[in-house]
Task: structure prediction
Amino acid sequence: MKSSSFAQLKPLALALSSAFILSACNLDDYTPANDTTEVVVDSEDQALAFDNSDYSSLTVNIDGTATAVRQYRIVYVANPIEMATTQTRFGGTITLDDPFVYQTMIVSVPEVAFDDQSAAIYFAVDNSGWFNSPVSTSIKEGAEFASTSDTDNIGAALKAGYVVVNVGTRSRGIRASDGHWAGKAPAPVVDSKAAIRYLRLNDASMPGSAERIVVNGTSGGGGLTSAVSASGNSTDYLPYLDAIGAAGVTGADDSLTSTINDDVFAAIAYCPINNLGNADIGYEWQYNSIRSDSNTGAIDGVAYSEGIQPTASAELAAMFPDYLSALGLSMDDGTEITDSNLNDLLVEELTAELERQIASGVTVPQYGETFSVTQRGTTYELTNDWLTLSGTGTSATVTSIDVQKFLAFVASSINLKTVVAFDATGVTGNPSVSGETNLFGSDYYEYANFNAWTWENNEVLGDGSGIDDTGMSWDEYLADSDNNRAEQINLINPLHYLNTDADSAPHWYIRHGMVDRDTAFAMQLMLYYAVKNDPSVQDVDFKLPYLVPHSGNYDVQEAFAWLKGMLDANPL
Result:
């Protein structure tokens, strides 16, 4: 791991003055041996001291056994942002009982593990679609958990004796009490890091080990997991962390420094919607050739073929090869990854997954037979016209995969996203705020475009975005110090930090379903190889699970067996 020398020690002892250490540990009667030394106490850190007596007691049932749990509700920053009472999420309206719910975490500890200072901390983020995430937990009085289920990750974590942390974060679509948009990038990454810093600050007085934090998330939460796990200890975030009173940030302006680490032990990321600044060009490069009216929805009543979607798709796709080449990613043998061989890597991963399934006894359809694919509660019988097998039974092997027909197969059970998929607002006739566009821009505007094509094709006057409103090209705008758009894009992109001086998580578990069209396979392959190429990463487990759609935490037993292996191999 690329962290500094104190990363292996308890951060509390290094980060705080002796006076605060004692305050945090409730030893107020202690007198320092050398009382002539001036003691400097960070008031924000002192305000964030963990109170181990402030908890609720509850009982849950794990595998039918009553289990006592201590639960803490903690505001993890010293200067939380007060939010408006009414918010929107997933297109609906929610009413907040607590205006600080977006910067609060719920820490749940099995009573039997309370004194275990080496237990892993299972750090769960909930930001599907990169939406804002008011803190919540399924760990409630009388709740039932099944640790052996393949879909109960919280039950498995509690059974294993892990500390479970459910984290609330700001993100797109929320307003502060003063009316400003309060969830703009990099807010969800900053808040996650602030919660991690709280755990590190109080490591000596809290259950579990802050050296064993495991971040878990799905979809936008998987993207957030990836960004947090890739960017450990980067100083890029310090101004944002300082603004909310995160633990361990000292100094001011250009002299900000950190006394606490925010790197993590492992990432468990499902279908991570990552690298948003380039997600649209990757999506169109992947799917442009198979788009049609039958697998791409209309926009504002205009069919795919009748509007500007085909032109937009082609122009976005054409931007991808240069971007991919500039990344400098390489295969295991050193071969550069380009647009000419990226789909070959997709075939390799599909082949590996199909042959794993065959070897385990799953009957994979022969050419001309049918797959049963379930998407959003509906099962489709789809003809296999893309996969050829040799042999039968558990000895069958993959002979060939037609990539274009495979992509059409993926799009036949659920329509592709319309063009533009992620940065959708203000372009191609899109009539509403959609995609992740409202994650970006000034807190005075609801949304802002975040890639070159959408910026240059924004057609809404007065939205503060695009050449039409600013008079600047995309490159000129990114270079303008009066905005932070370039920072926003980079600070939520794991590829911006992998293979750099940032302290990336040493252990990664990444899954993207074989029939998941919510982001391009290309984006997941790039993330996978960026992780593999990072010399500080010790282990990466990547798969395209058989016939799995856009979803997460569906292979809990496999994921937790992997995690246990990583923890056992790296004892404290």
User: Anything to note?
Assistant: The chain has 18 helices and 18 strands. Residues 219 and 479 are 30 Å apart (CA to CA).
